[in-house]
Amino acid sequence: MGEPHPKLETTDLSRTFGRGSAAVDALGPLDLTVAPGEFVCIVGPSGCGKSTLLRIAGGLLRPSTGELAIRTSSPRPAAMIFQDYGIYDWKTVLANVRFGLDIQRVPRREANARARDWLARMGLADFASAYPATLSGGMRQRVAIARALAVEPEILLMDEPFAALDAQLRTILQDELLDLTQTTRTTTLFITHSLEEAIVLGDRVLVMSARPGRIIAERRPPFPRPRSGDVRSAPEFTTLKSELWELLRPEAVPA
């Protein structure tokens, strides 16, 4: 049997903002494939087009040239998680997690059951009736993750979801996400500035250049799955982090 078809594939993808002399080439050209069930992390300097790529994948932006294809059996294959949580202050935690299911017109009883199941998985079962303003940052991000996974997406798009959290909480949520995605095997495209985060979570780590962002390197963390956060203490972890930084550092320094 041959290799499975990619779940996500870009071909000569680029994005330019503005026109004429004010045009800014933000991304590409970029070729990328993500296999079914693969967790791909992308690191790169600020402004290199990482978030632009994710927004194209999520259908929020159109590419200027090239194409991005998602092989899917669902009309809404992707769920997206942002750094700023993206949850609604006026809805309860349960209603926030149920939101995508409501859009899909899942019957209310089933939608509530699925939402409560994901709240339980995220340790939020006791907060179903609470409002986001009463939650900590880590709890709000758990709500955002539960909402995304409740719709059983074929692709999970995550744009620096833990960047606003303190280091300890960030580590905890990384480990929780690692457990969840290893269980669900959801295809994931994950944007981060953190090399540690990319190595812990990723099947592959892609390094992007300065704007316009292109993929300049690819590394596979040498840790088989299932893996745990204990890989942070492995010598190979430190070696790979140093190697990635040497690739990234020239791109991160302004010309």
From TrEMBL:
Keyword Electron transport: no
SMART domains: AAA (SM00382)
Keyword Secreted attributed: no
Alphabetized UniProt keyword annotations: ATP-binding, Nucleotide-binding, Transport
Name of the featured protein: ABC transporter ATP-binding protein
Native source species: Streptomyces sporangiiformans
A Pfam match: ABC_tran
Annotated ranges, domain ABC transporter: 8-235
Any one GO MF annotation of this record: ATP hydrolysis activity
Coiled-coil region(s): none
